[in-house]
Design a protein that fits this description.
Elements lengths: L3 H5 L3 E11 L8 E6 L5 E6 L7 H4 L3 E5 L5 E3 L2 E3 L2 E2 L1 E4 L2 E4 L14
Antiparallel strand pairs: 1-2, 1-4, 2-3, 4-7, 5-6, 8-9
């Protein structure tokens, strides 16, 4: 079990995907994403979401991500945030706001 103070350490924010490219160097099928988090800046992420989404439809979509993990090197790419999704039987389904929100809005 975690307590409220533990949860508050996780910086989860909404952002808009501004680019999504195929990532052939990843071990598992993935996209390289650039996400605009408003005042928190533009961050990159490697996301294994190819089962349900093509890279063209991702641009302009809002997503929810943890933005305060240290960068993680994946092949030749630095992933700066973790895009959140739900593991379904047929791949990952993104967590998204059900209405448009300001980029960088905090989840709580």
């Amino acid at each position: 079990m975690i307590n409220w103070d533990d949860f508050e350490k996780i910086d989860i924010r909404a952002g808009t995907i501004i680019s999504a490219e195929q990532f052939p160097k990843a071990r598992k099928p993935a996209y390289r994403l650039k996400i605009d988090f408003g005042e928190s800046g533009i961050k990159t992420s490697s996301a294994q979401i190819t089962d349900h989404y093509n890279n063209f439809e991702l641009v302009g979509r809002q997503v929810v991500a943890v933005i305060n993990f240290p960068p993680r090197q994946i092949a030749d790419f630095s992933s700066e945030c973790l895009v959140l999704g739900v593991y379904a039987d047929d791949g990952v389904v993104l967590l998204t706001p059900d209405k448009v929100v300001v980029n960088g809005s905090r989840v709580g």
